Threonylcarbamoyl-AMP synthase (Clostridium gelidum), 349 residues
Amino acid sequence: MKTKVSIIKSIKDDEEKIKEAAEVIKNGGTVAFPTETVYGLGADALNAKAVEKIFKAKGRPQDNPLIIHVSSKDIEAYVKEIPEIANKLIDKFWPGPLTIILWKKDIIPDITSANLDSIGIRMPDNEIARKLIELSNTTIAAPSANISGRPSPTDYERCIEDLDGKVDYILGGAQSDIGVESTIVDCTVVPPIVLRPGGITLEMLKKVDSSIEIDNAILQKPGENLKPKAPGMKYKHYAPNAKVTIILGERKKTVEKIREMVHYNIEKGKKVCILTVEENVEEYTEGISMVLGSVLDLSTVAKSLFEALRKCDDLGADLILAEGYEEEGVGVAIMNRLNKAAGFDIIEV
Ligand code: TXA
Ligand code: MG
């Protein structure tokens, strides 16, 4: 398959390209496009054959439901009812990095929702994404635009790397601002429950309704008794080729332990990358340090996390040592992704 790539510099000057991509969606094709969270791989959510192409291109398990993307807050065509609390969340956080799970109407094909009676819906903040949805005249189903299991792409070059020759069209825009996927809140249950942490934090959600809780299985190693409620959260994910280990604890001890591990592994001939922050980087004299951002603003860390994991692979790293973060605010989303990348290999110091 030949993949067409178009880069959008400004919505105004490049609308023709977005129109062209929208035609692809209308004709049942696949389009990778930017969103503020990560890049998505889209197809017409109401067209079962088109949605099937997404699963194929990504190598995605069929039991993992997709999120549908809308360009307006008017979602009655797709869902059976909108509880008051969902309305409040939509008012407060849309457009933005929040996905809401509601009971779906039959217009949504079973393949899109992986045979569930519910569907996740999100109105992205990214203007290119919204324009694409609007011009496609439908709702666009879109998982992250990576090969299943790899870290989600936050720029179009990574979409090309994973999907060239497997999708019809790649729309390139800026680097994704948030860097981790949307927060998912299940509003089919009372109280609503966060199934995946993201840029909209539990603290922010609780300000709208204090009854909202977080799925207990999110931060712990999935086990027999503790299965995450979002089907996708059970899969190995965000995993680079290198082995990832998280070192978690007080700053000084973390740095000491990482220095020791870097030295030991380099002696054994291993290539070691360190995922660190501005505040700590000068402590490391061996290994390849990657500065994710600043501990004073964890959104900077979230923004560069997936790209850093991919860079470690580019460098042929054998081992990635990641500093851990406090599970507060965006730190919850960061630790969730790191835990999965590490297969929950954590050393507490
Ligand atoms: O930020 C995002 O949400 C990105 C961009 C492209 O919008 N999309 C994204 O999609 O992250 P994906 O497919 O990579 O992740 C969707 C997650 C999966 O874990 C899936 O299991 C869960 O949402 N999910 C979807 N529908 C669900 C449902 N009805 N009930 C429970 N979980 C659901
Ligand atoms: Mg994904």
Remarks:
- The chain has a mean pLDDT of 95.
- The chain has two domains: 4-81+91-179, 243-348.
- The pocket of threonylcarbamoyladenylate (ligand 1) is lined by residues 35, 37-38, 40, 64-67, 97, 99, 101, 113, 116, 118-120, 122, 142-144, 181-182, 184, 195-196, 230-233 (CB under 6 Å).
- Residues 251-267 form the longest helix (17 residues).
